[in-house]
Every structure is written in C-alpha cells, then in structure tokens.
Automatic annotation (TrEMBL):
PANTHER family, per database record: CHROMATE REDUCTASE, NAD(P)H-DEPENDENT FMN REDUCTASE LOT6
Top-rank lineage group of the source organism: Bacteria
Enzyme Commission code(s) on record: 1.7.-.-
Single annotated GO MF: FMN binding
Keyword Oxidoreductase applies: yes
Keywords: Oxidoreductase
GO CC aspect terms: cytosol
Provenance organism: Enterococcus italicus (strain DSM 15952 / CCUG 50447 / LMG 22039 / TP 1.5)
Pfam families, sorted: FMN_red (PF03358)
InterPro entries: Flavoprotein-like_sf, FMN_Rdtase-like_dom, NAD(P)H-dep_reductase
Domain NADPH-dependent FMN reductase-like, chain residue ranges per copy: 3-143
Keyword Protein transport: no
Protein name: Flavin reductase
Length: 183
C-alpha cells in the first residue's frame, strides 16, 4: 500500500489552505479509487517547530521528532502551499529544513493557492526539494484567490481543477510506486 501525505504548509491564522487541503484529500480519495493508496492530511500548524538553528525546548524537540517521524511514514506527498511575497511560506520552508533523509527517493506533487495559484512558491519548492531528494511531478493544481475563492476567502474551486488533480494523482501515484522499489 502507498501512503501519501497531504501536507498543509501554511500556519497563518485564517488561512485559506485548510479548505484547499480538505478538498484535495476528499477528491484524491474519490479519484484514486484504489485500495492500495491511502491519503492522510498533515497540518504543519500541529507541530510547534522552532527556527532551525535555535536550541529547541523539550517540547519543541519532541515536535521535531514527531514531524520527522510523520513525514518519514509516507511514500509520497502532495504539498498544499500558499504564496507569500512571491515565495514559499517561511514556516513551511523552516519545517522542510528539518528534513532530508525522510524524503530520499520519494515523489512530491503541488497544489497551490494565491494570486497566481502559488506558481512562484511551487517553483521555489521544486529547487529546495530536489536538493532534499524528492522527485516532483510535472502536473500541479493552481487555485487563484481571484477566481477560485469568493471574496478571496471562501473556497469555491472551478470544476476544471478536478481534471488537473486526477492527472496529478496519476503522476504522483506512478512515481511513488516506482520510487518505493528503490528504498
């Protein structure tokens, strides 16, 4: 069985990402229709990670361990990413910097939301994650705050995104299965 982590990378209060992440998990479960693929939502906000390089408190040390263990448990990932100031959210980049062996020979796909569907954030992530050993899919799903959110806050995605997600899942599941043979 393949385990795919759907990782929500924004911790901002009032974030739009939770609705996007829930939609992604719901649609992925419906579209995959496969008993051999499991999807699980992982919310970065559930992990009190310190800034990398700072001495962690005991609680933060435990959070680092829990974050590492959770991420290591997956065969592939869908990263739900916002775009802040033309890049990836700082908290998400910081959280990713705690990881490397957990990602070796695994695949990642991206679902982004923002002014340009988080296209620049996704491009930032592709460079960082390649260094961490992840292979990224070609297909992304990009939600616009202007067209896929009512008043830039209520998630109402256009129907065509479902087809994009199906294509993304096909690539991600294929790559995750193939790369599992290397581990």
């Amino acid at each position: 069985m393949l385990k795919i982590g759907v990782v929500l990378g924004s911790v901002r209060e009032g974030r739009n990402g939770l609705a996007v992440a829930n939609w992604t998990v719901e649609k992925a479960k419906a579209f995959s229709n496969a008993e051999d693929v499991q999807f699980e939502l992982v919310d970065l906000a559930d992990y009190d990670l310190p800034f990398l390089g700072k001495t962690p408190t005991a609680e933060q040390g435990a959070a680092i361990g829990a974050w590492s263990e959770k991420i290591a448990s997956f065969d592939g990932y869908i990263f739900i990413t916002a775009e802040y100031n033309h890049g990836v959210a700082g908290a998400f980049k910081n959280a990713l910097d705690f990881l490397k062996p957990e990602f070796k020979d695994k695949a990642v796909a991206f679902v982004g939301y923002g002014g340009l569907g988080a296209a620049r954030s996704i491009e930032n992530l592709r460079v960082v994650l390649a260094e961490q050993g992840l292979a990224s899919t070609q297909r992304t799903v990009n939600f616009s705050l202007i067209t896929d959110f009512e008043n830039m806050s209520t998630f109402k995605p256009a129907a065509f995104h479902e087809g994009e997600l199906q294509e993304l899942l096909g690539q991600l599941i294929g790559w995750s299965g193939a790369l599992k043979t290397l581990r």
